[in-house]
User: Which sequence fits this backbone?
């Protein structure tokens, strides 16, 4: 390793040699950096799962524009929208199709006694063109009380829904209704529920008798081929002229939902604070290590200083140590984080997964934090006067 670093640096790797001269302290320093890295990885993983869970929900639908109540912060909440708004929107040039969307929450007690809360989506199965890949074929929902259940829902036992088909449905009871599970969907658990249940709009009214078919939560719209979604949205806003409605493209709705959940809701803020705390912990740990190292070798540095070596030379040594610590801490942090992601995804049903962008961002952040710590530690050496040390 010393030989490789000598070739890379073009000089004796003093930083490396100082670190390995006390292997126990080096291991402790790398463990400290790794701990901070794991903390950041876990928080970013949860934030990523938060965003991904929201995006997956929208993958159940194919639409260009969504109309919601102005108080709706996401697809799974919001006041009702009068269905007359749907007919008004259909009269706007460029709008070709419309579909009401109902959402609610259904609680079901599993045979093992656990309660599972399903985000319940009610949609007209005759409007197949609005159904996305995450839901698939909904023809089986045309029969009353047939449902599609999330096979990745938290609390569902492995293989519990594997035999649920139209010919051999799994019967369950929820909201005083006997339901027949005739197929499955694959959304996974989120932060607002344990999984998803997809039903027809008629079955939705049976599950939620207080709801009215003329007042969906959202209205999905399709626009004609070649139409600009932004221009059509402006036309709809002008035609409906309602301050109580939020009218935007489906892409804008997704981004607004993600932004609200990650920057306004307490859960998103907590994960964001966790990332900041992890970075601060890493900076403090590396600063303590480098500062101690500078203090321990201050006489040697002062000797070099008296011999004419400039500040840039000492800076390169400190940065060398910082980068070595960053790499030595990042690799175990990445491996441990992969294991934690696997366990968390299995236990929670959340879409937690490592990606290259996140790994690269944490690596760059780790190197940057270590370099910042090195710059702070350098102040002690910059102010050192050889005459005061001998």
Assistant:
């Amino acid at each position: 390793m010393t030989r490789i670093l000598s070739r890379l640096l073009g000089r004796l790797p003093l930083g490396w040699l100082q670190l390995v001269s006390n292997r126990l302290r080096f291991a402790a320093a790398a463990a400290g950096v790794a701990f901070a890295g794991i903390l950041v990885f876990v928080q970013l993983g949860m934030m990523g799962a938060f965003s991904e869970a929201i995006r997956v929900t929208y993958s159940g639908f194919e639409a260009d524009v969504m109309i919601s109540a102005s108080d709706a912060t996401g697809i799974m909440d919001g006041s009702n929208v009068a269905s007359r708004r749907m007919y008004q929107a259909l009269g706007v040039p460029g709008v070709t199709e419309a579909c009401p969307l109902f959402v609610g929450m259904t609680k079901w007690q599993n045979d093992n006694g656990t309660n599972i809360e399903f985000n319940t989506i009610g949609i007209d199965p005759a409007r197949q063109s609005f159904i996305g890949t995450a839901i698939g074929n909904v023809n089986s929902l045309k029969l009353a009380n047939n449902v599609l259940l999330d096979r990745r829902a938290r609390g569902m036992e492995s293989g519990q829904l594997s035999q649920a088909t139209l010919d051999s449905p799994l019967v369950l009871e929820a909201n005083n209704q006997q339901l027949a599970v005739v197929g499955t969907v694959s959304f996974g658990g989120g932060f607002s529920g344990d999984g998803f249940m997809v039903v027809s709009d008629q079955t939705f009214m049976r599950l939620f008798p207080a709801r009215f078919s003329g007042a969906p939560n959202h209205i999905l719209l399709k626009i004609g081929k070649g139409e600009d979604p932004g221009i059509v949205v402006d036309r709809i806003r002008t035609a409906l002229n309602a301050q109580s409605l939020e009218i935007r493209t489906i892409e804008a709705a997704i981004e607004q939902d993600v932004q609200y959940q990650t920057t306004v809701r307490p859960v998103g803020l907590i994960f964001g604070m966790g990332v900041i705390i992890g970075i601060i912990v890493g900076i403090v740990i590396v600063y303590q290590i480098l500062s101690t190292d500078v203090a321990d070798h201050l006489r040697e540095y002062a000797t070099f200083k008296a011999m004419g070596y400039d500040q840039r030379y000492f800076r390169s040594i400190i940065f060398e140590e910082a980068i070595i610590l960053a790499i030595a801490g990042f690799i175990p942090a990445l491996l441990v984080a992969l294991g934690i992601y696997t366990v968390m995804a299995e236990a929670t049903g959340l879409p937690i997964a490592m990606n290259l962008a996140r790994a690269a961002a944490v690596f760059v952040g780790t190197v940057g934090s270590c370099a910042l710590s090195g710059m702070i530690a350098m102040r002690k050496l910059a102010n050192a006067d050889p005459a005061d040390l001998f």
About this structure: The CA atoms of residues 42 and 250 lie 30 Å apart. The chain has two domains: 1-54+266-388, 71-243.
